[in-house]
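MODEL INPUT / OUTPUT PAIR
PAIR INDEX: 1
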Amino acid sequence: MKRGTVWQRHVAACPRDADGELLPHRCRGPWGFIVDSGRRPDGKRRQSTRSGFATKREAQQALDAEVTRQQAGLRQDRAFTVAEYLEQWLTGKRNLRETTRRSYAMHIRRYLTPSLGHYRLQDLRADHLDALYSDLLDGRHGGTSAATVQHVHRTLRSALNTAVKRRLLAFNPAVQVELPQHRPARSSVWEPRHIAAFLDSAAEHRLSALFHLIAFTGMRRGEAIGLHWRDVDLERAHVVVAWQITEGDDGPRLGAPKTAAGARVVPIDPLTVDVLRGHRVVQEAERAAWGQAWVEHGLVFTRENGDLLRPDVVTHTFRKLVEAAGVPVIRLHDLRHTHASLALAAGVDIKIVSDRLGHSTTSITANLYTHVVPEVARSAADAIAAAVAYTRGDQPRGVSGVLARRASAAAGRSPPVSEAAGQRGGPPGARTLNPRIKSPLLCQLS
């Protein structure tokens, strides 16, 4: 591939002779470049050209960048703006969950397009992103937190990663940005007495079994309201998490769990089995009362007419029941955290807790519940020390006794006559003879 040519365009002020030929002069015209970029389908040469550079150096740098772009196989879409690309990218994301799609669309509409949309995609740089995130933190877009900045950044980084894969960009400028630190607030959890008080207070509500199930299994809100009766085995005492309900633009939608690890089997206790049996009786009565108007979905938890529950309505109902119960106010999702915290504090293995919650790895569980894991580790250390404790006649028990006896023995030992405290070997002034030195005097001085 040719390296291209840098040229300068002459202007009307350039001096010319009588025949119109240019005279030697110092030209003030703009610089440009031209480079071959392959052949057209008809066999003719395809050339790329740009002009308007103030100096030859700028034109040469632009030419080098163009050649690099062509050698990397990047598409020639110089007029493609960030706004156009983001719209196209989101349209092409066909496997997104509805909640994720709405989140991406909000980030693009509210933050990315107003601030970055006018840039050409290939001209987007890390300093443009730095300026956007600084504006967000300074409140120029209504005031946003460090957490929001990180969410917006993840959306943009994902979009630009796709641009790199499609050879629209040579690299992703989002990876060069330093983000503000964000430390998530620790979730509030209930003590066992709070759970009991809440469930007792909400016992007469038609969704009390739903909140009992979340508290005793750690299921997510969408997973619990998406549970089908065919996935409930009361004889074997377990439920199968295979669906979830999320909020869509046109109402609640039934879909797959949040992640692949979210599809799981969760054992349930005898009390929860009885609660679900009682809830089924209540639901059968509701079905009979509605008759032909009943909407059959096969779900465990529904509206009064059998239709899908809206996730936000469930959250609102929980908030009202918490206020009526007079217990500490927590979010509905904190019931899930309460379940995990109580399980870990009770000594349940973290792998089992992770499987019940539907986490893909135990590291996710450990990171979310760092305030509980050290207590579990401390209990394990105490249990190990108690397990290996032993007696040795009338001596002190355990490892601490061994250390105490060793310290006592060391304190009662006195050094030999020819040995100073802390010193081993021959008396002072004595040296081992070196057989290579024949003179005894030199041997002493060596």
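PAIR INDEX: 2
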Amino acid sequence: MKKTDLDNYTQATLKFPKPVTQTQQREAVVQGRSLPPILVSVYQVRRDKIISLLSKCYLDVLFVMSPVNIRYLTGFTGGDAYLLLRKSGATLISDPRYTIQIDEECNNIDVHICGLGDLPDALRLIIGGKKRIKFGVESDAITLLEHNTLVKAFPEFEFVPTTGIVLGLRQIKERVEIDAIRCAIDVAYKAFADIRKKISTTISKKSTAHTAIIETEIRDDLEYQMRKHGASEKSFASIVCSGKRAAMAHGVPANYDITKEQLLLIDWGAIVDGYMSDLTRVLIVKPQNKKLKQIYNIVLKAQTEAIKAIKPNKKCVEIDAIARNIISDSGYGKNFGHGLGHAVGLEIHESPRFSVNDSTVLKAGMVMTVEPGIYIEGWGGIRIEDDILVTKNGCEVLSSHVPKNFDECIL
């Protein structure tokens, strides 16, 4: 089978609804309201863009199976759905459990409701008769069982595995998407500020009785506060690790008292209208530690210099190298074992990535994380992470209002 991708994909200029202002989106968060929904016409424009690419990809149809891609192209947020894109239009396929939801969320698109297990019959009906066509499937979304079922049902089709067709469009965020990410950042920050205040108050209390502050309790409260401030859900399982445990880049919160440690690493994010934020901060419990301040400032410098270099036409690998070289020159190269960052949107880890292996050229509209770190087994870890929008002339730190200088992070 011939493999198709969109490595040379370039998004055309599209017209979208007027963006929500920062003031409007902050007011929405305060008042517990969601942002205005993405207009139906935007989904139609997205679908039309993908359909216009079918011939370039040597496809007659594209069968979209990824729930995230289906949401991006239709607005449907439920499960168990498929989207068939062909030159004559688009059809959303699902089952009777989602009839009402589809009616509420999706307009201006053909919908085919079929029984569970009746997908082959539905496809035959929509496509019409036996035809020799090039049938594109999302290779990173289809299971082996689903593939075998389709091949058996349609021996006349040429099945073509595809990668990156929809994701190529998703890489460049529209204004409505950027507004949602801004809102998700604000929700995450408000929750973090609440938690930090509680931790600081507990630590500063003059009491003969020691009051423990447990990692798992911080996580639970943080995720509750995000929902309280308007998040539909957390972006991922929050990381809350103190002291030596912070040396685990993706550590799991445990029954540890953070007041006995020198630092607390928190990696968290919120989802608003489907879009995610991703932030990391280190709170300083015992600022007297000179090594702690030294390593913290190395990581902060690496992040600051990398962010300064972000602009269109820069390669992801070049941005990664800036931060990596600063950490390596400081003697901690072996202690920075992950990529510098990744795109974020409807999924927490999207492409492209700031890494030694990604030569993708940055474009205006991409939203990327920048998260250098130094992790030392037996001592702890420092990571600082912000969400960055690539602009026409440089970049904007969307999370610039979340404090990160060493003195600002002392409890």
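PAIR 2 NOTE: Residues 69 and 167 are 8 Å apart (CA to CA).
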